[in-house]
Amino acid sequence: MNRFEIANLICEKIKDNKIDLKGMYESSNDKIGYFFIDNLLPEELANKIYNSFPESSGMKLRKSLREYKHIAAQMNQYDSILEEVTFAFQDQRVLELVQYICGIEELSPDEHLYAGGISLMSKDHFLNPHLDNSHEKDQKKWRVLNLLYYVSPDWDINYGGNLEIWPEGVGKEQITIESRFNRLAVMATHSSSWHSVSPIVEDKKRACVSNYYFSDSPLRKSDSFHVTSFRGRPDQHFRDVILRGDILLRQSIRKIFPKGVIKTDHLYKK
User: What is residue 242's predicted lDDT score, i.e. its pLDDT?
Assistant: First the structure.
């Protein structure tokens, strides 16, 4: 299927549930707005997407105190269904439905997949609590929404690898959103939207298709520019000290070099 046909299916599913989804987002929007919808695509198609994921050896590894996962954005190097489903979420009709649900005007997708694309996580992989970079690659638009589509069949919440959001900040109680097969999760990104992925404890592969939406204005008037900022988990006191220092260092460097010192290579170069 091509991206237009997949977008048709996404729109149909969201339209049928848009009132409930809008209620879910609005009820959480005072802290970190989010909604999720299950059985987004026909099961056969969702399975095909999962089975088309490349081996981890064909993706970029990110491993540090901040994170441990495999990622890819150069979508034309892989099975075409992965590119089609990724860009299906950038269809204008999908954007308009999400705009309605979240009450955000003038959303725009990211054709360059800056920090988007596909990710693959397996045993011992994790993503520590963090704030996403506040802007797109040229720092002209604000990053406002994160879309995560999970496609690992028979995923169990006890495997780990689940989305965690921290509405009261890191150290307080978090909300866990299971990385359930064929589930789309959408969450707001702003200067207080701390989120993470719990460590995977089973020998399983968690596959995800991700997109970001941008806007000319931030979600909150208090939002300000920030780099991707990681923290330690509540029980990781020493790591938290290191990561706090890392935030200060990289934020200081950005004040001197607004575009950064190292040019990102996680982009779709067409």
Answer: 98
Domain map (residue ranges) of the chain? 3-256
Contacts of 175 (CB under 8 A, 6+ apart): 164, 165, 166, 167
Q: Which three-class secondary structure state does DSSP give residue 93?
A: helix
Q: What is the DSSP string of 138-189?
A: TSSSEEEEEEEEE--TT--GGG---EEE-TT-BTB--EEE---TTEEEEEE-
CA nearest neighbour of 112 among 92, 86, 94: 86
Q: What are the φ/ψ torsions at residue 185 (nearest 5 degrees)?
A: -115, 135
Name the burial class of residue 138, with classes exposed (0-12), middle (13-18) and buried (19+) by CB atoms within 10 angstroms of its CB. exposed
Q: Which residues of the chain are modeled with pLDDT < 50?
A: none
Question: What is the architecture of the domain spanning 3-256?
Answer: Sandwich (2.60)
Which pLDDT score, from 0 to 100, does residue 86 have?
98
- What is the distance between the alpha carbons of residues 35 and 188, in angstroms, rounded to a whole number? 9
pLDDT digits (tens, 9 = 90+) for 154-210: 999 999 999 999 999 998 999 999 999 999 999 999 999 999 999 999 999 999 999
Quickly list H helices, the chain. Answer: 3-28, 43-51, 80-88, 92-102, 237-256
- Dist. CA 60–CA 69, nearest whole Å: 8
52, 79 Cβ separation under 8 angstroms: yes
Distance CA 65, CA 32 (A): 25
With the CA atoms of 64, 68, 69 and 72 taken in that order, what torsion angle do they form, in degrees rounded to the nearest 10? -10
